[in-house]
Structure formats: structure tokens, C-alpha cells
Amino acid sequence: MVGIPEAKLESWASKGAIVTAETTHKSVRKALDACDELRGIDPEIYLQGSYKNSTNIRGESDVDVVIQLNKTYTPYTLELSTKEQELYKSAHIDATYFLPEFKNAVLDALKAYFGYSMVSEGNKCIKIKKDSNRLDADVIVCNQYRKYKRYVNWNDQDFYEGIIFYTKLGDKIISYPKIHYDNGVNKNSVSKTNNLYKPTVRLFKNARSYMVNQGIIKENIAPSFFVECLLYNVPDTLFQNQYSTTYLNIIKWIVDSLSNGDYKNFVCQDEQTKLFGDTHKQWNLKNGVLFLSELIDLWQEW
């Protein structure tokens, strides 16, 4: 059969190293534990992105770390009924500790622990340079975001938990890394895809990296996050033990979805946002179609 050899697809499906990612995460935690101000606030620290989701591939060098303020959270209550909004408002008081001062404390703690030359502030995140024991780290400093589904009282409420932060340019960023992770674990389960979802994500991410390295597509055409979200929409039954079959199954299904308009219902893995659109949180449809076209050519011309 023509196409990409099964051995190559199997190698693309394999997972990259995770030990240094865990070491990086632990070092950030130690930095914050050494800060008296932050110890009293007890921030939540966790990985997000490919290392957390077990979709990391060889060559990925940045670890995404979230430092989340839970003492203060940002609510979104507009989807509640008028009565629920009134109940929520009457039960809550204004915060006294805010994200800007929290971020300043985090930045000071990281510089004190790692050294001023190793830590810098970018537009979206704080960057920590790698050394022999850890990887480069992109640190998101945020506070909890609650998108409310129901509110009666403190003991009877329900919400989607996300994170919210602002770039240095003033843009507001909201995402749901915990929901993204939980949904990926569920789709990868034995009852869903028989533990084949995450290896398949790695396969397509490696195919994407191969095409970038070969100059076939530009790096910004198919960000890894959107590649993973695209595959999240693929029916569970199309993930097969033979990766060549899975590759072809998925390509055909996406082509059909583009033809019949089903792509309009594709969602990101957190299921809070449509995958394709014109916002910074969505994939430009033109780029998605280009990526698909190049995946087809990659198979046919291998």
C-alpha cells in the first residue's frame, strides 16, 4: 500500500520525554514555597499543554506552567437566570487581593529563586530559561475564572472552572485547561478510543512538525493546540490499532465534514469554544483546510 509506512507512523505516535517537565514543574513550586507572601495565599500550581496532556512529542522544549490564584476569582454569571444572579450577588463580597499584585509577587519570587538573568516577562507569560536539570518554562499567572451554570447558594452551585489573565498589551485571555485535560483523558479511555486518542494526536503533531521542518507549511498554519482540538472531534470508532488505517479514516472524515458543513460544529477540546472562527482562540478555517490538504499530499507523495 502506498503512503507513509506504518513504522514511521508508530514512531510519530510515541511520546516524548516527561522527566525534565516534571522537574521543571517542581522547581517552580519550590520557588513559590520559598516566598512568605505567596505561602499565605497558597496558589495552585500545575502543568498545562502537551506535557500535562501526554501529547508531547520529541523536540518540544517549552513546559507550560499555570500559577493560579484561587483566593480571588472572576465570575461570569450572565447565563444564570435573573433570580440566580440576584442570589449570587447577595451572597458575595468584593475581593481585596487582585491579580496584578499577585503576578508581581510571583515574578519577584521566581527571580529570587532562579536568578534575575534567568527570568523575564513576555506579553502573555513569564519565561524561565532552562538549565541542565529543567526545560524552558512559560509560566501563566492567572486567577480562577468561573462560568456559572447554576447558583442557589454556596453549597448548591455549578460552574465551568477556567483561568483568566491579561497580556501586557491589555488583551483578556480566558481558557479552560482543566476541562481540556479531563476531556482528553475521557476520550483516550479504553471505553472510548482504547487508549489510541493521545498517540494519534502525537502522530498528527509529528506529521505537522515534519511538514514545518521540510518547509511545506509555515509554523503558524497549524498550531499544535488546534491540531489536538481537531482530532477531539473525530468519532471514537475511527481510532484503530493500525495507524495507517486511522490516518486515512480521519482524513476522509474531515474531508466529508468540510463538504457537508459539519465542521461548523467542531469544538475545542474544552467544549467551550467553536474550533473554527476569527477570534484569537479559534483556528482560521483557511489554515485548517490548507493543513488538511498538505496531510493528504504527504500521504500520497511519501
From TrEMBL:
Gene Ontology molecular-function annotations: AMPylase activity
Claim: tRNA-binding is one of the keywords in the record: no
UniProt keyword annotation of Cell membrane present: no
cGAS/DncV-like nucleotidyltransferase C-terminal helical domain boundaries: 182-300
Organism: Methanobacterium formicicum (strain DSM 3637 / PP1)
Domain Polymerase nucleotidyl transferase residues, every copy: 28-87
Cross-referenced Pfam families: CD_NTase_C (PF26305), NTP_transf_2 (PF01909)
E.C. number: 2.7.7.108
Catalyzed reactions per annotation: O-(5'-adenylyl)-L-tyrosyl-[protein] + ATP = O-[5'-(adenylyl-(5'->3')-adenylyl)]-L-tyrosyl-[protein] + diphosphate; L-tyrosyl-[protein] + ATP = O-(5'-adenylyl)-L-tyrosyl-[protein] + diphosphate
Protein name: protein adenylyltransferase
Entry keyword set: Antiviral defense, Nucleotide-binding, Nucleotidyltransferase, Transferase
